[in-house]
């Protein structure tokens, strides 16, 4: 063995997995941490980690009578969201990354990042986190191991994934796993004090789809550092799904039970900060309907033997947008958080040791804002970053569906695609068939949000809400979706129906036309009625849209003019959309499935354009 191998903890490995041992040693020798810790996922480990973070000033413990075992974290003001500009798909062939991803050759990226990682954990602890995405009881459990020098990441991964000793044991000595390397890129020199939120101005979030590896450097923010989430469960898993005939999607999963007791499972893909967590935890406003939560961000979908598409949530926690979350909008999230065991990042701290954010009722007189400054209701800036987050165990969700841990998943009846659009897109429309639904998904558009670094409010195409997460060529991804539509053994009639929703259309003065949140249950009811063949609809150029009388609006206090405006299909607005769709499709050249061009032609014809 090479000389500098005397890193404390390195030899205390609670595993004999040769590939894992060799990799951990190799990374330790490159990054030269002060010690190596093999995470067991125990309560004692959590307490040790969080109290060390509190002592170091990296976390503040909240008042345990209000928020048991919960903590407040503030990031560096520059490290607040996913960095799409710095995210790379390093496929061997550049063409396999496609026009929607940044690309660098794997060897070149590895060389560049190896130099960044050299000594990058100096003065820090390197944690080894064995984790499993999805139930450990799965036929083929989806293992990963993250190496990180961030204790914040360890604490967050304990909430967000199934991790620790039980995973290592299940891995035995042979199991395949996704190696996921993370460093904040901020070595501590001798005599130097640490900062509360270490990070590096240079950031790379790199994926090697062929070898199923993840290398992340420079950011501590969740989407860039909790590598089981976006990096593994979406970017790497989407490439696995392409190769193996399944789908890894940016989707919530919910269980909907009608007053008659009929159950439907619904998945929904909306871009980041466009309503997945809220819909997944929805409290219906219409009597007798019940929603239970299965997942709020990611769905892995495979065909079952019966030809239906089954969805599993690979995660174990909720990493939700804080602002706007309130007893009125999302009471089930508030209940989940009230049980404690949560980490809040970049929200505001109250003087009595609780948290607050915009949208949570009227503000207290004084707060400490997300930058650590005094804040009063007269302050000009927001108290919480618009992408501030809560990180909380899904098992605390009071409406968690018991099937959440079933490795077989749940059979999906309907897929909703949705975006955030002020205009054009009606509240809901049903696709004519699978290919039309794939067209709706492939042309999905949304205004950008604070979930990614960059300008907010700009309309962009975000296919299937996966623009930042497709781990390969988007044209091939569309082709994969079309192929999935053939079903198993020609059982295409068992596929989910596809719907396109928009909770965010605005009227005069910029106000939302549709009240959203719990009232979205009215749209879910219509979806079920369409599935069951009882719901009415008007055939429009963009699909089947309910007229106001097709929706259950009983007890809803919204002017009829607003409902009509929310449902309107304006041919003029849609005609303005066409050149943008053409431009978007042109990007994909030969890779764009011809059937999608045919869908565009058919839409043009229905809009009287040729
Ligand atoms: P996710 O990132 O896709 O999970 O989105 P969230 O469910 O966290 O919601 C993001 C933001 O949109 C939050 O500020 C929510 O309060 C807001 N939001 C969610 N659902 C609705 C809705 O139906 N109507 C409106 N107007 N806002 C919503
Ligand atoms: P979100 O998840 O979809 O809940 O915003 C985080 C993200 O996509 O960055
Ligand atoms: Mn997401
Ligand atoms: Mn969410």
TrEMBL record:
Pathway: Carbohydrate biosynthesis; gluconeogenesis
Stored CDD domains: PEPCK_GTP
Main location per the UniProt record: cytoplasm
Chain residues that bind GTP: 273-278, 389, 420, 517-520
InterPro entries attached to this UniProt entry: PEP_carboxykin_GTP_CS, PEP_carboxykinase_C, PEP_carboxykinase_GTP, PEP_carboxykinase_GTP_C, PEP_carboxykinase_GTP_N, PEP_carboxykinase_N
Domain of life of the source: Bacteria
Positions that bind Mn(2+): 230, 250, 297
Keyword presence, Transferase: no
GO MF annotation list: GTP binding; manganese ion binding; phosphoenolpyruvate carboxykinase (GTP) activity
GO CC, any one term: cytosol
Segments forming domain Phosphoenolpyruvate carboxykinase GTP-utilising N-terminal: 23-242
Cofactor binding description: Binds 1 Mn(2+) ion per subunit.
Cellular compartment(s): Cytoplasm
Active site: 274
Residue ranges of every copy of the Phosphoenolpyruvate carboxykinase C-terminal P-loop domain listed in the record: 246-606
Top class in the EC scheme: lyase
Listed cofactors: Mn(2+)
Catalytic activities: oxaloacetate + GTP = phosphoenolpyruvate + GDP + CO2
Pfam families registered for this protein in UniProt: PEPCK_GTP, PEPCK_N
Binding site for substrate: 82, 221-223, 272, 387-389
Function per UniProt: Catalyzes the conversion of oxaloacetate (OAA) to phosphoenolpyruvate (PEP), the rate-limiting step in the metabolic pathway that produces glucose from lactate and other precursors derived from the citric acid cycle.
Family classification: Belongs to the phosphoenolpyruvate carboxykinase [GTP] family.
Cited HAMAP family: PEPCK_GTP (MF_00452)
UniProt subunit comment: Monomer.
Protein name: Phosphoenolpyruvate carboxykinase [GTP]
